[in-house]
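Handoff note, outgoing to incoming analyst
You'll be picking up this chain. Sequence as last confirmed:
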Amino acid sequence: MKTLNLLRHAKSSWDQPGLADRERGLNKRGRRDAPRMGRALAARLPAAVISVSTARRAQLTLAGLCDAWPAISELPHQTDEDLYTFSGDELAYWISAQDDGLTSLFIIGHNPALTVLINDLVGEPVLDNLPTAGYAQLTLDIDCWGDLRAGCGRLIEVLLPRTLEGI
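Most recent structure output, in case you need it:
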C-alpha cells in the first residue's frame, strides 16, 4: 500500500503578461492560501519531504507551506524539472520511477496533470478540477511505484482553501 499526497500550486499572478509561464509568482490570494494550507496540513499529516515543480509559483507555494508548517521547513525538499508538466501521463511516469522504499510521496504540481492523474488512479471521474492550493490524498493498492495503474487508487481526502475556517 502506498500513499500519494498531491497539492496544486497556489493561485498564480498574471500581473506581467510577458513573463514566461514558469516564472509567474503568486497573487494575493495565493500568498494567503499557501500558509493556510500549510497550517491545515500540519494538523493532518506528519512532516514529509516534498517534491516540487521548478515553476516559481510551485516553489513559492512550498515556501508558504514551510512558513506555516515548521516541521517541514528544515527537510530536504526536492525540486524536479519533470514535475513541471501539465500531463497526467507524464506525472504518472515520474511517480512510477520513484524508490519503492518510500511508502508515500508528496508532490506540488500543476493542472490539468493533477486532476487527470487523480481521476485515472481512482478509475472514475471523482474531481472536475483540483483548484489552486487544493490538496488530495490517495491510497494506492500497490507495493511498488512501478505498478501504478488506472483504478489502483482510492481518494481519501480533498482539502480546499475555501473550506478552511479560522486557519
